[in-house]
Structure formats: structure tokens, C-alpha cells
Amino acid sequence: MSLFADLLSTVFERRYRGATEPDRKGRSIEELCADLISNAGEVSGTELARLILDRYAAMEWEEKRAFFAYLTTSQGIDTAATRTALDTYEAGPNKASYRALMDLVEPPRQELARRLNQVPGATGQLVEMRADLLRMTDKNPEFAMLDLDLRHLFASWFNRGFLVLRPISWETPAEILEKIIVYEAVHAIHSWDDLRRRLQPEDRRCFAFFHPSMPSEPLIFVEVALTKGISTSIQDLLADGRAPMAARAADTAVFYSISNCQAGLAGISFGNSLIKQVVADLSRELPGLKTFVTLSPIPGLTRWLEKEGRPLPGDPTAQRQLSAHYLTNAKRPDGGPVDPVARFHLGNGARVHAVHAGADTSANGLRQSGGVMVNYLYDLAQITQNHERFATAGTVAASPEVRALASAVSLQDA
Amino acid sequence: MSLFADLLSTVFERRYRGATEPDRKGRSIEELCADLISNAGEVSGTELARLILDRYAAMEWEEKRAFFAYLTTSQGIDTAATRTALDTYEAGPNKASYRALMDLVEPPRQELARRLNQVPGATGQLVEMRADLLRMTDKNPEFAMLDLDLRHLFASWFNRGFLVLRPISWETPAEILEKIIVYEAVHAIHSWDDLRRRLQPEDRRCFAFFHPSMPSEPLIFVEVALTKGISTSIQDLLADGRAPMAARAADTAVFYSISNCQAGLAGISFGNSLIKQVVADLSRELPGLKTFVTLSPIPGLTRWLEKEGRPLPGDPTAQRQLSAHYLTNAKRPDGGPVDPVARFHLGNGARVHAVHAGADTSANGLRQSGGVMVNYLYDLAQITQNHERFATAGTVAASPEVRALASAVSLQDA
Amino acid sequence: MSLFADLLSTVFERRYRGATEPDRKGRSIEELCADLISNAGEVSGTELARLILDRYAAMEWEEKRAFFAYLTTSQGIDTAATRTALDTYEAGPNKASYRALMDLVEPPRQELARRLNQVPGATGQLVEMRADLLRMTDKNPEFAMLDLDLRHLFASWFNRGFLVLRPISWETPAEILEKIIVYEAVHAIHSWDDLRRRLQPEDRRCFAFFHPSMPSEPLIFVEVALTKGISTSIQDLLADGRAPMAARAADTAVFYSISNCQAGLAGISFGNSLIKQVVADLSRELPGLKTFVTLSPIPGLTRWLEKEGRPLPGDPTAQRQLSAHYLTNAKRPDGGPVDPVARFHLGNGARVHAVHAGADTSANGLRQSGGVMVNYLYDLAQITQNHERFATAGTVAASPEVRALASAVSLQDA
Amino acid sequence: MSLFADLLSTVFERRYRGATEPDRKGRSIEELCADLISNAGEVSGTELARLILDRYAAMEWEEKRAFFAYLTTSQGIDTAATRTALDTYEAGPNKASYRALMDLVEPPRQELARRLNQVPGATGQLVEMRADLLRMTDKNPEFAMLDLDLRHLFASWFNRGFLVLRPISWETPAEILEKIIVYEAVHAIHSWDDLRRRLQPEDRRCFAFFHPSMPSEPLIFVEVALTKGISTSIQDLLADGRAPMAARAADTAVFYSISNCQAGLAGISFGNSLIKQVVADLSRELPGLKTFVTLSPIPGLTRWLEKEGRPLPGDPTAQRQLSAHYLTNAKRPDGGPVDPVARFHLGNGARVHAVHAGADTSANGLRQSGGVMVNYLYDLAQITQNHERFATAGTVAASPEVRALASAVSLQDA
Asked: Among A44, C373, D141, D405, which is 20 to 30 Å from A100 by CA?
């Protein structure tokens, strides 16, 4: 009935908007925003909000820039008033002084965003708006403040407690599947047949987080292969024509691709929750699964070696030694691992489990890491401890095997 | 599968918690909260959050009071640091200074609440927590600050854009229906049969707002009677044994009961959105509906008359004149109507449409208003204008008939 | 949207029926049936079918009797034509002769019922029609032929492969729950609270078969208690205020009530499939369940004892001996057990597992069996063998304990 | 959870089958069928049925032929016994004699098919079985009798009252969409992009009938274009890059493709019901739709002209005249139209509304009808009358315009 509903809704709204629209046609988006914020009640809020979102959607790039500039400069906090309120509150912290302070320390643009979000479907449009904003922050660094406000709001709205995990399968609506094709960021999906190979066999799974207000927009998804033993080659995993195995015969789940979908949700982390939830769900479904690992790229390896003036050797063992060394010892000034994927999984409490030469023979795989890939292991009994050591002391958890490989390089260097 | 899922989930969590629980058993809820806030990553956040919520759920009243006291005093804002950050920001407003300021002006207890909300089902528990808190604010007025923080968060989480309108019917799960019985606040539902009379006939409707994270908890609901002409007696509307009419023959929808369900969401207004949405949906479904009115109590009438030293006369016409006068002219010091139900509907843009003597002959109806009830009219073409005049100038919209009744009293008084 | 759909559907149909109705108003239901059958195509079939069903629904009892008489006499098979077709077929069995024969051996009233069933919702109405018919067969034994035809059709339509098993819980729509209250045939449900006690605790379950075309009408349902050990008292099982146990701590599932819901589906057996399916589903959900038993009434005990001129003794051991004897040895002329509940469960492959005195102290329980109840055990490893021995040789499967009890009586008698 | 369910179900069944399988391994499918039929009870029926279906699924072509031969010869009716029963019934028609007769006139293979259908998922497998059978009837005409039995059963199981109409859209599971691609029989769908063009734009619709027991298998589907005025070219309708129109601006719904999906349901007609239902649903959704027409091929035109020794002229007007003549006047010996598509739509009560030259310029379109296509009009006010005249007198309903075109040929011929 959705099209029908849409139609009627339009008819209804036209009738309903009748009284209010004429007055607003001549007003600028900035004036409309001021109306929306100032309007004490909420009676015409939805109409106003819809009008603003429609206006925004029709804007050219430079108009959007001007709109963001307006939000940055005119909808920020009033420092003088805030200071006074802070003094009053400090002198006598009570309901009234606290409320006055709280009203001032939050910039009006946050309330504006909340009021825009009254409109059904607005959440996705606001996420899009932030994606636009982020594309401009290089040129307009002052927009970073507005961005912090949106990010703050979105972190609250997209709180883990509000997200829904859904399996993505060959029974999923095409509308969502085509987005999976587009959003896949690690190993490109080349066609619907390629997609089907990752979804339909009983030893392949995919899961995504959704938000109830954006039901056909995945936020992040992970692709999983169920295997006997740990995979050491992404090409083998994705091979066309391979024979699927019975899911219940698998002992290992390999997370071979994790993709964030929404540019407008940058900086809001879902990956750790997603992996833990999928580990939990697969454990329930398939008690035979004993090992949960990734098969991950090492995107920074070649670049780092170049910086170190050290070419990647051709010998697979030497490749593995250098990779192990890089993953466990190469650190940024802030003490974190150089490799971004390592940072993510180690931060989640995983450990560096094994490295494999010749594991990704695609052009991209060879370019970024000479074809070497790595398994990060998610061991539920160790995950908290690993995470805490990593978070507090920067300790990188690694298997004895990986340690041994890495120490070969250290000894050599010494 | 839900029970099964629960079971397995418990098994799984026991396995999973194994490593972490022992260390935490000895820690107080305050220490756990500090852990949860300080924990930079989110790896063990869910476990911690669940532990805190479980502890809270098992607390006695005085333990809860102590916990709220802790949140009030130890998780508030740091005014000295905030003032410094404010100075820095004012001197150079940029990403770093803004972020530093924003981090300080939000009390840590807000982030604590967001982290607690990671746990599936936590949203409802946090709403319950605020309900507990509100029961204590009389005795502990300092808790009002904590309450403002929760209310601020909840206003964001329960934003109109996240709510879902669902019809409540005889096909609704019993689990939800029994809550409707409990939550009905205007005209008590005495039994399942009484409930059925309000849901099953085709000329009776009920709608509720739900939040996706609390799928079996209505937030607010409205009961509607479809009628020919405007009802003038609640007893007639609810009479057992009355003959239902065909829904498509109705020309009027009477909103005869609106009940908020969640004490913990006090101060977050859904009523206006609910009525407007229901008007919209019913308009679509039944194009024959031309009039949308309430049949509302006048809860403050008797009390006000007493204060005025004016007994309610026995004569129906005189009763109606005094009621019209009270609804349109009796004001609070702040300029708003004395009557709380009038404040609500006039604030929504409705107008006082008609008053009826003998309309509620129940004990409660006679006590609060001598049996007089009132229709507020929701006319979509007038609603915005009414609302704006009411919000800005305190103008009470009323029908000519009601005006005439009211002026009879004014003349008399003059 | 269902009401809306209904409304529009009515509008649409009025428009649509326009052309056809006038001609049909004057026609009798018999003429309409003849039209429906004769109509080679199906174009106006739905309209005609609806008209016939509407007419039927509005009939008085005697009109229905006349209608059934018409179907019995005028819509039966043509024996002369059948004999000719049989000869032709026997002389040359081929497509044409077989089709001709098949067309004749099926009475037209079967095709009539299929055509009536084109109308959405008709299946339930046809089931109701048979319920009416069955109420008349005592007085009109000739209707048994029409009944055989309906039963034949229904056995095909309500084939196990078309049924859907659904849990009945406190989350089930009230509309269905109120039918559970009405249809419960073994231990009456006295109120919604009583119902809740059988559905909501985690150690209580209920399951029903539904047909997709009658989605709010249960066909048969079973109530289950999860327990530690085998229950020996129905009053204990149903006690108000008892403390529920954790479902996963249970080792036994007790089927304490099975009720057929549709009088019009008499003679079409669902019970065996239902029990087997529920045993399978519960086994999956709760692997701790090791024992699946009923706690069943012995409805024929007192009556049989009276016939035997043997009063039920007061001593519990003697009661149990006589009950064991009755269940295992008392046979009908056709070799089947006298007790109808025993016939059902033994026919399903269950065995008589234990008998308990004082197990049903309700007025009804005392009247029918002096309060004695019986457990029938469903042991999946034995079920087929038990069933086959019972079906072929009339052998009653029983536990050694029950055998011993029974033999005490035999010895005594001998 | 389906895979999980499968897994557990298998585990469970292994446990359960334990007792029964050994005995059956050595038995032939014919013996198993005899067991299934003879087994008075239903206890082990499901297991037996599953075993038979599994055996069948693993058979080679010639084994299937042997199995059908067995069903044809050994599971047919017993004519001698039937004659005796017929005599008995004729002599005394009562419940016993009628039941005996009915039991004999239905060949045992019908009951066999019903018992096979106990297994979840069996319905689809039985439909497949009939598809196999139909592929053999040319070589084995004696199988036509078995086919008549299956068709008779399926007509009952796939009764209109049991079917569910579902829209097929871009939100439909990929699993179903890929079947739409495969089953499209009129204008081939070349890719997922081509499919999307027929589903996603708001002026394109698709609807299919499903049976609840085969939820991912469409039975028949129709593709619809919403247009302003009646389409005269299929290539225009399906053009890539065309601009969609607003659905509510359309005044016409064009049914441009209807495809049956299940070879095993041949001879069971859904098309008429589907079209009528879709007309009804679209009328409700889009009250602006005034005209419901097909844009149909004329598959028999070229062939008929060849037989008539009359080449299709190049002149569009002459083409249209001949097409109109063919559609309205070319009859088979039985009086029905020569053209199969014409037979279908005229049989449904549609009329020949307009013919268009150059309407299908595809290779196939040019070959079968020189590119001419036809609109059949579904006018709800005329449909019953048209159908009845067609069914009784063979009258072809046509628009005055088509009549005029056709009469040009008749005059010419005369």
C-alpha cells in the first residue's frame, strides 16, 4: 500500500498545507529555520521542517555552503550569556540555574536538527546533509564545529540500543541488495551473480545494522564465510564455481569484508558491535563454530615499507615476517598501530593471529601489501583483556606464531 | 523463537561474561559507572552497562536515592574547567576549542545514560529509572538537575521522527491490551469486555505511539468514536449494548480519551503529534469524516468555582455559561488558561467548540465539573493560526456559540 | 488498513455488481447453485458464490435443511450415466473414457463447494455450513452422504501440508485468545487471568494449527506444562499463585489439554500431527526435555465400571489397579480400547505410562474417573512400532508398572 | 533462522527416524507407496511420504517413467468392485453404500498424492512431478489418466480462495525476482536492470498469485504499465530511459504481459482471476484509472494468413483490417476463436478494443503478426455479459471501430 499511502498523504497534505504555505513562500531558508527554532509549540513544526528539508534538497552546492555558514555562525552558542549563566549556576546550583545554563550551552542548531527530524524520513536526509558538510570541511574548516554538533546528535540517535541487526540474504529485497553492491568497500561485487555467490550458498552469510527510521539503508555490513579451518586466500573464498559446504560442518567463521555505508555517519563506530553481535548469533545458530577470525587486508604495508626504505621481499616467509613485524611493532606517534585495519580490530580486542603471503593476488592486494593478508582472531574469552591492555598500554595481542615471525625481523634489525 | 533466543543468549553470555565478571563483583555501582564512562573503547561497555542496569533493578528505594545523589553530585559539570574552555573558545573558536568546550558543558551523566542505552531493552529501563527519580524530586529537589539531563536525552530519543503510530484493535496482542487497560487515565476500563467495546466495533478506534526500542509499551494513546454529529454524553458513547454504526456513515470523529502511559517520559509531549496524525490517517481512510472534535472533561471547573466563591448552578444553561466563561476567560498568572485540558488543546491549535451539561454523569464527572464536558474542535485549516495567536497573545479560539455563552456571564458580572 | 480495504472493496463491488445483481435477485438459492455449477467459465463465479454464501448465512434453520435436502437429492451422482461411463472405460481405458467417468463419479455438489470456495473467506463459511449439517444428521440421516462429500473435500483442503503451527502466547491477538477461552474443552478457562496463567509463565506453552485461509481461527490446540518430573495432579499444574520454573530447567513436557475447535471439521484428524510437531519443536528449543507425556482424563472409567457392576474403590492403589486394567484390557467389540482418549493416544503410538489417583479433584474429574488420571508417553523411538502393533494387532503398549497394576486385577478376577 | 531450523530438524529427524528407516531401505518406491496408502493411521505417514519424495527426486528419467506406469496401472480404479458398489448404492442409497462407492470411484493414487502432501514443502514437489509427467504424455498417452487425477487434485488445492495476490516490486526478495526473470514468457527480461525498469518506476506495476505452501514460487504474474491514454507500442512501453509519469496522473492501466510460471499446473486457470483482482486493486489505489486494457500479441495471425493463402499486406490500415477480421471472425471447428490469446481474453469477458500496426517491431513480433498488436478491454460493467454471450453463443465482443475494420475485409471478400 505504500504508493497509495504516499498518494493520499500528498493529497491530504496539500489540503492541510493550504493555510500555511502562502505566508512562507517568500521566506528564506534561514528565516524558516529561525521560525522553526523560535516556534514555542510544535503545531506547525512538521510543516516547517518539511519545507526546510525540501528547500535544502533542491539547493546547489554553493547554496548549501551558504546554509552551513549560516548554521555555523548564527546558530552557535552565545558565549557571553553562557558565562553569566555559568556564574549564576556556580553561585547557586538548582533547577532554574541549571536549566538556564543547559539551554545556553547547547547551540540552537542542535535543537534545529531535532526539530527537522520530526518529519518522517528526515533522519536519512539529515545524515545526507552531514555527508555534504563533510565534503566541504577541507575547504571550510570552520564547519567542523557544526559537524561536531551533528556527530554528537547522531551518536545519540544511532546508539547501539536503537540499531537492528538483520541478515542479508538472497531473500532480502532487491532494493537493499543493490545498495550492498554499491557500498561494498573491500572486495568489489561485480554483478548480481557475484552478489548471489556471497549470499545464497549455505556457507556464506552477511549481516547488516539498520536504524528503524532508515529501514532500507544499511549502516554497516559484514560478509562471512563458513569454513573448515582458517582461510588463507581471498580469491579461493570468492571463487566462482567452488563447491559450498554444509554450514553445520564448518568450524570457523571468516569475516572477510566489513563496509561502512553512510558517509554522513563518519566517526560513529558500529563495527565492533556488529562483529560481536554476529559472533554471538552465529555461535547460537552453529554450535560447531569454534573460531572467529577475519581475513583482512594490510592496507598500509607497502606504503610503510617504502617510508622505511625497505622493499617487500619476494620470499613468502620473509614477507610474512615483515608483515608480522609491521602489524605488531609499527606505531604512530600516538602509540597506536600504523595500520588502520589493525587499529580497528586490535581496538576491538582481537589479536593478530596469522599472516599469509599470496592471500590476495588482485591488483589492489598486490599493490597495498604485496598480496599478504592477516587473520585477526576474535576469542570471546580474551577480548576484554586484549582490549584493555591495548587501550591502556598499547599492547598488541598476537599469537605465538606471529610473535615468532615478527621477532625474526627484530633480531635481524638488531 | 523469542524464548529460545533468550535461553541461548543467556548461555552464550554466561560463557562470554566468564572472563570479566569476577573482577567486577566487588565493585559498587558508582565504581561501575565510572568504569563505563572512562572506558575509552566500547568493548566491554555492553557488559558493564547490563551489570549496572541489573544492579539498579535490584535496588531498594533508599539505594536508588543514594545512586541518584551520586549522579547529581559526582557526574555533573565541572564549572571551573568549563569557564576556562569557554574563554579559550571565545578567544579562538575552532574545532579543537569547540570540541573541548562541548565535552565539558555536557555533564558526564548524559554520556553515562547513552552508554547504558547500548544494552538491548535498556531504553525502557532508563525510562523507568526516570519515573523513580520523579517520585523523589519532591523530597530531593536537587535531583531536578539530573532529571533535566534525562529529559533532554529522552526528548532526543523520543523525537517524533522515531515514533511509530499503530492502531490498537481487538487484533492487538493481549500483552499490549492489558497495558491499555492499566494506562487509561480518563474513563477507566473496567474489564476485557469493556475494552472490547472500545476496540472491536467498526465505529470505535484507538491509536498509540510506540518507540521501536520499546515495542510492547505504548507511549500515549487516544480513543476515538466515529459518530453522526457531535457527541454530547460520554455515557452514551460508552454504553454497553449500543448499536454500532457503519464507519463509512460517520461524519465526525470524537477523541474521547487521551492517556499518557509512561511516567518516565513526563514533560515530553506526544499528544499534539498523535492527534494530528490520527486526524490525518482517519481523513484518508474515511473521507466522509468532516469534523474532528474531542469530548473532554473540564477537570478544574469545580475547584475554580469554589475559589471564586461561586457555586455551580443547577440550571443546565447557566452551567454551560459558566463553563464557557471559565474555559475562555479564567487565566493563570502566566496568562494561560486555568484548565489543564484547555491548555493542552488550545496549545495544539484547537478551539473551544461547544459545552454540554449532563455530559458526564459519573461520580468523577459530577465532582470535577458538575457533569459538564466540552468539545475542542481540530479544524486543520485553522489550527496553525489558532496556535500562533494562542502562543503569542494568549488568545483563546472559541466558536461564536461558546463566545455568546461566556459573554452572558461577563455581562452579568459587569 | 483492513477496514479501509473493506470499505473500498464494498464500493468497488457495488460498482461491479451493478450489471449482474438485478437479474439474480429473484432467483432461488437452488437456481443460483445451478448457475454456479453450469457456468462453464469462471467470470461471474465469484459474484455468484458470494451471493449464495450470503443467502445461506441469512437462512433460518428450516431453510438450511431444505437447502441440504436439495444438495443431497439434486446434486448427487447420476448412477445410470455412471454405469454407462464405467462400461465404456472398462472397454477402453483412455483419457477420454477416464475423464468422462471421473466427471460422473464425483457428485456435482463437490464442484459446487469448490466454486463457492473461490470467494475470500469462504473456507470458514463452508466449515460452518458443515457444522450446521452435522447438527441435522441425527434427524436427517440421508444428509450423511452430503457430509461424506464435504468431509472428503475438507480432508484435501486441510491436509497436514497446508497447516501452519503457531505458538499461542500472551503476545497473540486478543481476537484469537478469546477463541482459545471458548474452545478449551478439557479444563475450562474461567477468565482472562486464568488464560494468562496458561500462556505467560515461561514454563507454560500453547500451540495451535491454523489454515492460511482462516487465519484467526485455530483448528486444534494443545496446552503444555514444562516440569521437573511427571505431573500427577492437574490442580497443581493449574494452581493460581504457583511459582513458575525456568523453562531450561525442565526435563518433561506435559500435554495437559488438547481441544478441537471446529465442529465443521469433525472426523478430520489433526491431533497426532499436532503432538508430533510440538514434540519436535520443543525438543529443538529445549534440549533438556527428555520426556513427553500427557496428563489425560479417563472419561469412560466410571461409566464402564458401572456397566461392569464394579464400584470404584476408595483406596488409591485399588483405584490405580482398576484404571490400569480398564485402559489396557477393556475393549470394544471392534477390538479397540473402550476409552476414547486411550484410543486417540494409543492410535498415535503413545503408551500407557502411569496412572495417578487423586489427580483431578474437580467435580467433573471425580464424576468421570473418581479423580484418576493417566499419563500417555510419547517416546519417539517407540512411536512407530507401538502404532503399528496397535493398528494391526490391537496391542496396547504400556509401561511395566502399568502392566503390573493391571495384572493385579486380572489375577484377582481369575 | 531457517538454516538453523533445518539443521536441528535434521538432527531431530535422524533421532526420530532411527527406529523406522532400517526396515525401509530395501523396499522399492512401489512398496513404499503401498505402505503409505495402506497404513490406516498416519503415525509414520510423514516419514514414509518424505522417503518416497526423496526417492523420486533422485530418480533418472526412465525410473520416473516406470513409476508413473506403476501409478497408472496399479493405482487406478477397480471397475468390477465399483460396479458392484454402484449397484448396492443404487439399490439403497445411504451412508454406508455411498461411502463404499465413493471409496472405490476415487483411484488410490489420489489418496497417495494427498498423503505425500503431508510433508512440508511437498506441494511444490508434487507440482514438479506433474511437470515431469506432462513431458512424457506425448510418448505415453496412457499417463493422461494419472494426469487427470493430479489435475483434479491441484484444481482443488489451488482453488482461487487459497491463493494470495502479492505485488512484485523492487522491494521483493531477489529469490523471487530471479524467478520472474526466468518465467517471463511474453517479452523477455534481459537483465536485472531490465527487470528494475518494469518494477521500480511508479508507473509500472507487477502482481503475482502465490500459494501459501509455495511461498517463494509465483504461480502466474502480470506486468502493468500506467499510462495516459492507451499504449500502441510495446517498444515504447519498455523503452530504456523513458521518463516515468506520476501514478496518480494515469488514466489507463495496460496489462502488457501475463505469464504462467508452473508447468505442473497446466490446465488450472488463474489468469482471469488475476486480471480481475488486479483491476479491482488498482481501481482502489488509483481512482483516476478509468480504462483497463491489455496490449497483447496476436500469435496466430501470420500462421492463419498463410493457411488462408493471404499474405499480410504492408499497408498499416490493411494490416489492421485483416487483424480485426482475424480476431473477430476466424473460428476453430468448435466455434472458438483461432487465436489463443483472443480465446483467453474473450473467455474472460474482455472485448477486442483496438488493433495497432507496428506495435511490436521485435523479431518475434514481426514474425507472428507482422508487428500488429491488440488491446483487449476489461470493462467491469460489461464483463459478465460479454462472457456469457461468448460462452453460450460464441459471440465476440468488439468495439465499433474494430467491427468497422473487420467489415472492410468481409465486404471485400464478399
From this structure: A44
What average pLDDT does this structure show over B359-368?
95
Ramachandran region, residue A39 (left: φ > 0; alpha: ψ -120 to 50; beta: rest) = beta
A84-93, A384-393, C12-21, range with the lowest pLDDT: C12-21
Q: At A144, which amino acid appears?
A: A
**Among candidate residues C8, C202, D173, D231, the one with its CA nearest the CA of residue B4:** C202
pLDDT of residue D355: 97
Residue C15 has a pLDDT of 39
Please, what's the largest Cα pairwise distance for chain C? Answer: 81
Distance from CA of A18 to the nearest CA of D (A): 20
For an interface test with B, which of C1, C2, C7 has the most B Cβ atoms less than 10 Å from its Cβ? C7
CB contact under 8 A, D117 and C18: no
Q: Are A310 and A322 in contact (CB under 8 A)?
A: yes
> Average pLDDT for residues B325-341, to the nearest whole number?
95
Sketch out chain D's domains with CATH numbers.
Answer: 9-157 (1.20.140.90), 161-294 (3.40.630.180), 301-413 (3.40.630.150)
**Dihedral Cα D179, D181, D182, D188, nearest 10 deg:** 160
pLDDT at A321 over 70: yes
Cell (9 digits) for D393: 453463443
Chain B touched by C3 (CB under 8 Å): yes
Cross-chain residue pair D170–A175, CB shorter than 8 Å: yes
The amino acid present at A277, given as its one-letter code, is Q
Q: Is A285 part of the contact surface with chain D (CB cutoff 8 Å)?
A: yes
**Whether the Cβ atoms of residue A110 and residue B110 lie closer than 8 Å to each other:** no
What pLDDT sits at residue A98? 96
Q: How far apart are CA A298 and CA A284, in angstroms?
A: 31
The answer for residues whose C-beta is within 8 angstroms of residue A183's C-beta and 6 or more apart is: A218, A221, A259, A260, A261
- What whole-number distance in Å separates Cα of residue B167 and Cα of residue B200? 12
What are A62-69's contacts with CB under 8 Å, separation 24+?
A64/A132, A64/A136, A65/A136, A65/A140, A67/A29, A67/A30, A68/A133, A68/A136, A68/A140, A68/A143, A68/A146, A69/A140, A69/A142, A69/A143
How far apart are the C-alpha atoms of B170 and C173, rounded to whole Å? Answer: 7
Helix (H, G, I), strand (E, B) or coil at B257: strand
Distance CA A160, CA B50 (A): 13
Which residues in chain B (206-225) have CB-CB distances under 8 A to chain C? 216
Q: Which cell numbers hold the place of C382?
A: 517407540
pLDDT > 90? residue C120: no
- In whole angstroms, give the CA distance from residue D289 to residue B116: 53
- ipTM over 0.85? The verdict is yes
Q: Three-state SS string across chain C, please? A: CHHHHHHHHHHHHHHHHCCCHHHHCCCCHHHHHHHHHHCCCCCCHHHHHHHHHHHHHCCCHHHHHHHHHHHHHHCCCCHHHHHHHHHHHHHCCCHHHHHHHHHHHCCHHHHHHHHHCCCCCHHHHHHHHHHHHHHHCCCCHHHHHHHHHHHHHHHHHCCHHHCEEEECCCCCEHHHHHHHHHHCCCCCCCCHHHHHHHHCCCCEEEEEEECCCCCCCCCEEEEEEEECCCCCCHHHHHCCCCCCCCHHHCCEEEEEEEEECCHHHCCCCCHHHHHHHHHHHHHHHCCCCCEEEECECCCCHHHHHHHCCCCCCCCHHHHHHHHHHHHHHCECCCCCECCHHHHHHHHCCCEEEEEECCCCCCHHHHHHHCCCEEEEECCCCCHHHHHHHHHHHCCCCECHHHHHHHHHHHHHHC
Rounded-to-integer distance, Cα B370 and Cα B363, Å: 9
| Closest C-alpha among A191, A258, A253, A190 to residue A218 | A258
Query: Which pLDDT score is estimated for B39?
Result: 60
